[in-house]
Amino acid sequence: MNFDSPAPVLVIAPHPDDEVLGVGGTIARLAAAGRPVHVAIVTRGMPPQFTDEQTAKVRAEASAAHARLGVTQTHWLDLPAARLDQVPHSETNAAVGRVVAEVAPELLFVPHPGDMHLDHFYTFVSSLVASRPHQQDYPATLLAYETVSETNWNAAYLTPAFVPNVFVDITDHIESKLAAFGCFASQVKAAPHERSMETLRALATLRGATVHRGAAEAFVLVRSSV
Description:
Layout (H helix, E strand, L loop, with lengths): L8 E5 L4 H15 L4 E8 L7 H18 L3 E8 L8 H15 L3 E5 L6 H13 L10 E5 L20 E4 L4 H9 L14 H14 L5 E9 L2
Parallel strand pairs: 1-2, 1-4, 2-3, 4-5
Antiparallel strand pairs: 5-7, 6-7
Helix pairs in contact: 1-2, 1-5, 2-5, 3-4, 5-6
């Protein structure tokens, strides 16, 4: 991963906070190195499952978290949360395709297809459709990230397993990741819940130890043509 490249980076997240849980430390490291980092949030909460007040609160939390990480721009695609399986696939493809074309990222982060939440699966598939390499411009590198309580709660051996083969050292940026997640007051849980500060730090420590670093985020390489 070239942290000095001027080319843009795009993180595609099904819901607000997925990008921080899976890529927060890497976003902070890339932004600190001067790379423009964009985040696309695919869905928004809509009635009757979510009130307008809940949706506005989470959006404000996401804006604060992204400012903390140094995100260049947040793109809201506004498809219905928890209902991507009911949206025509062509519509999701088009929404994701537009933001990929607009940002023209060299590096693209996407959710893992084995995640338990179907929004994550459909976001992954549409991200791959938007990034097909037969186009004139397409992301050179795609990495799938893990989201605690989604990636690791699916059925072992029956769904795709998250087996990382790329690790990014975030030792100097773990506190920024935790501070960004702390902006999501509506989402942070008390330990031992997986969406707790303690769990995020423990996972970063484990991933770091795998490659003899103080803290890391782990990814599955989908494709790289660099």
